[in-house]
Amino acid sequence: MKKINVVAGLFLSLWLVSACAQKDAGTTAATGDSALSAARTRALNRTTFGDTLVKTDAEWKKILTSEQYYVLREKGTERAGSGQYNKHKEKGTYTCAACGHPLFSSQTKFESGTGWPSFWQPLNSTAVQEVPDDSDGMLRTEVLCIKCGGHLGHVFDDGPKPTGLRYCLNSVALNFVKNQ
Ligand code: FE
After folding, report:
1. pTM of this prediction?
2. pLDDT at 39 over 70
3. Do 33 and 135 touch, CB atoms closer than 8 A?
4. What are the b/e assignments for 51-74, b being 16+ CB within 10 Å?
5. Among residues 158, 169, 170, which one has the least CA distance to residue 29?
6. Residue of 48, 66, 45, 68 lying closest to 149 (CA atoms)
7. Can you give the pLDDT at residue 74?
8. How many angstroms separate the CA atoms of 134 and 122, rounded?
9. Apex CA 149: angle with CA 143 and CA 155, to 5°?
């Protein structure tokens, strides 16, 4: 019996190591910010979303506009240049349009020229979750609200200093709370 337990434990360990390796394969490289890098690793190792604000599709449809639902729940993308926060320059905090969770500070927003609001860093280590995304024939890293799992956009490695990251988000997935 003891021998069986040892063998089972060994298989479980191997499986966990291989599962983590697969999850890490599609992520963006860490670029020196150890806190965010650690946050990324933690997020990738989660099996459920942060505080797990879970609603049914019907419940989300009651709360969100059809465009918000398309982006946040169906992982859609708004047309470039169409969003209200693309060229928005006020000082404050961008929050999740679905659940209100604080996501990005205006202090890390920059003009990427892409037509989508872009940031070089999330607000903190419990703002977003990042997961590999191989849809549309590309390997990208998807950015989700860590609280409700709503799709926000993607993160790329071609951003400005100090992180070198570009969080490319949909305006429709965001709300804005102005600094007092
Ligand atoms: Fe959210």
Report:
1. 0.73
2. no
3. no
4. eebebeeeebeeebeebbbbbbbe
5. 158
6. 48
7. 96
8. 22
9. 0
CA–centroid distance, residue 138 to ligand 1 (Å) = 25
Is residue 125 within 8 Å of 111, Cβ to Cβ? Answer: no
What's the token pair of residue 86?
Answer: 């693309």
CB 149 within 8 A of CB 65: no
Q: Choose the catalytic residue: 99, 145, 148, 168.
A: 168
Give residue 100 CA to ligand 1 midpoint distance, Å. 6
pLDDT score of 54: 86
Q: Tell me the DSSP string of 110-134.
A: E--SSSS-EESS-SSTTSEEEEEE-
Q: State which amino acid sits at residue 161.
A: K
Tell me how many degrees the CA angle 112-116-121 measures, rounded to the nearest 5.
65
Question: Active site includes 148?
Answer: no
Written as six digits, the tokens of 26 are: 């599609």
Higher pLDDT, 68 or 43: 68
Q: Which residues, including other chains, have CB under 8 Å from residue 46's CB and lie 6 or more apart? A: 129
Q: Could you give the domains of the chain? A: 2-178 (2.170.150.20)
